[in-house]
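TICKET: design request
STATUS: open
ATTACHED STRUCTURE:
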């Protein structure tokens, strides 16, 4: 008789896109909690068998209608979901060719903001913590590299 292995709890994986267009970053206002509508970066959970890039492109397209160019990872974030289930995410620097956003039902509004304006918006605490762990020079360097690689200064 074969003994069953105890079922292992799995950890959720997520991706977030810091999308740049003409020196601004896209943020979305969530529509999931009555009375509380924090801002966040586009993104979401990985589906079974999906890699980070595929998940990021799918989530960004679903939430914003944008097709993005992924330039690389820039940070990690952690969050405890409902019932304390852990979620770990990877943030990527991306570039969009347009600022025309089509929101899904998951969000109420969007803004293209300069990095220094992010403090004016109530970002989810887990994202704010993750951003604080990214050295400002690292984020600025990633943005500059993105501009150089794709000629965003046109």
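STATUS: resolved
RESOLUTION: sequence designed for all positions
ATTACHED SEQUENCE:
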């Amino acid at each position: 008789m074969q003994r069953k292995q105890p079922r292992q709890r799995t950890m959720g994986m997520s991706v977030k896109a810091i999308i740049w267009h003409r020196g601004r970053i896209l943020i979305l206002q969530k529509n999931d909690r009555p009375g509380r509508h924090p801002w966040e970066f586009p993104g979401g959970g990985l589906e079974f068998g999906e890699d980070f890039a595929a998940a990021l492109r799918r989530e960004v397209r679903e939430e914003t209608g944008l097709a993005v160019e992924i330039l690389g990872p820039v940070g990690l974030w952690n969050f405890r979901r409902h019932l304390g289930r852990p979620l770990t995410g990877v943030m990527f620097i991306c570039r969009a060719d347009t600022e025309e956003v089509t929101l899904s039902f998951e969000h109420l509004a969007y803004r293209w903001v300069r990095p220094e304006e992010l403090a004016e918006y109530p970002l989810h605490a887990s994202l704010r913590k993750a951003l604080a762990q990214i050295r400002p020079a690292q984020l600025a360097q990633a943005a500059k590299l993105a501009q150089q690689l794709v000629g965003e200064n046109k």
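CLOSING REMARK: The longest strand covers residues 68-80. DSSP finds three helices and seven strands in the chain.
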